[in-house]
Amino acid sequence: MKGKFIIITAIALVLTFGFASSGLQAADSISAYLGFSREVNEALANRIQEKTGIEVKSITLSWGEIGARVATEYPRFNADMILSVGGDVAINGTKKGYFEAYKSPAWDDIDAAFKSEGDTYYALGTFSFLLVGNKEKLAEKGYGMPMSWKELLDPKWKGQIIMPSPRTSGTAYMINYSFIQLYGDKEGWKFLEALDKNIAFYTKSGNAPTDLVGRGEYLLGLTADENILKRINDGYPLQWVIPAEGIGYEGNYCMILKGTKKLALAKKVMDYLGTVDASEFLASMGYIPPRPGIASALYGAAKPKFIKLDHAWAFKNKKKVVKKWKSKFMIKETPKAKRVGDEKEKKAAARAAKKKK
Questions:
Q1: Cβ contacts of residue 41 below 8 Å, gap of 6+?
Q2: What is the dotted CATH code of the domain comprising 2-126+251-284?
Q3: More confident: 259 or 9
């Protein structure tokens, strides 16, 4: 287990410092749980089909929903692969035997930090969270973008900040443990409590704040970085900043689910994901890809400033942190976030009870 934690957290060190169709027919397809945004999921599925001839029947879910689903479905999964999920699912799923080990030759020359020791999962680079603002609404108020996270505590932002709920969103959990580790446990919770005074509500999705701020419904949002570039290109009056303290980050992990009847096709998809073309595609969507020397369309060639994080601690303490968050802040969840969060907790409790029998 310790070795797996090291592989996951080693990404921090790396970041800080076309396939032919091979005779595949159009009917060849796999199903996959995808944890990117819906737009990215659709674009990635199209790219995979274009380059490999394999249709990816994608099921868009949040990371938390993917984790809950595979835990419930095991050992008879309703999908062949997972394309984008968090490190906690990658580690726990490996421990519980959810994934098929496959040493893809396409990943051989990619840094070891992006691969598990047992070849059960690979990292499609990273994603982060950013602070976004609506340029037009901020200008009307005469406000500039905050350049420090602590500026969000100013009473002038009361009711004008939105962010996701960690009960339903992997992005949200990353946001919370980033602040807890940035400021320390005691001061980190004090910061979150002070920030909550200015929060309008907590959304189900990690991407929802991007759209809500882009439409001018709120001034500021803490949000996943994956849809920001597209919304700007779509004409939304969005701006984004990396506050002086930096931002948190996570890996986008992919794996083959054990027991799939389409193992050969899943392996071909995994091979494609290790290619230069796949990294260039991910970079064009704004991600920081696994292959070096490919600039992110959002961040550019230079790596952003990252908060120093202990991901092993975050994964180990997730239940405790989310439980504490729930006791303090759940009252501001949107109805959808509350419903989905409650459903996840009920399913987790049922699984725990089943294990005890």
A1: 34, 58, 60, 83, 84
A2: 3.40.190.10
A3: 259
- 33 forms beta bridges with 59, 82
Rounded to an integer, what distance in angstroms lies between the CA atom of residue 60 and that of residue 38?
A: 6
**Helix, coil or strand: residue 85:** strand
Annotated domain spans of the chain = 2-126+251-284, 129-248+317-336
Q: How far is CA 158 from CA 9, 199, 200, 237, in A?
A: 35, 7, 7, 21
- Is 129-248+317-336 a domain of CATH 3.40.50.2000? no
Beta bridge partners of 288: 126
* Per-residue model confidence (pLDDT) at position 152: 98
CA distances from 169 to 175, 197, 304, 317, 352 (A): 10, 21, 22, 16, 21
Q: Which two tokens stand for residue 69?
A: 């689903």
Contact 274, 106 (CB under 8 A): yes
Q: Is pLDDT of 297 > 90?
A: yes
- pLDDT tens string 37-68: 899 999 999 999 999 999 999 999 988 889 98
* Residue type for position 304: P
Residue 13 in tokens: 């060190």
Categorize the per-residue pLDDT at 17 as very low, low, confident or very high, splitting at 50, 70 and 90.
very low
Bridge-partner residues for 199, per DSSP?
161
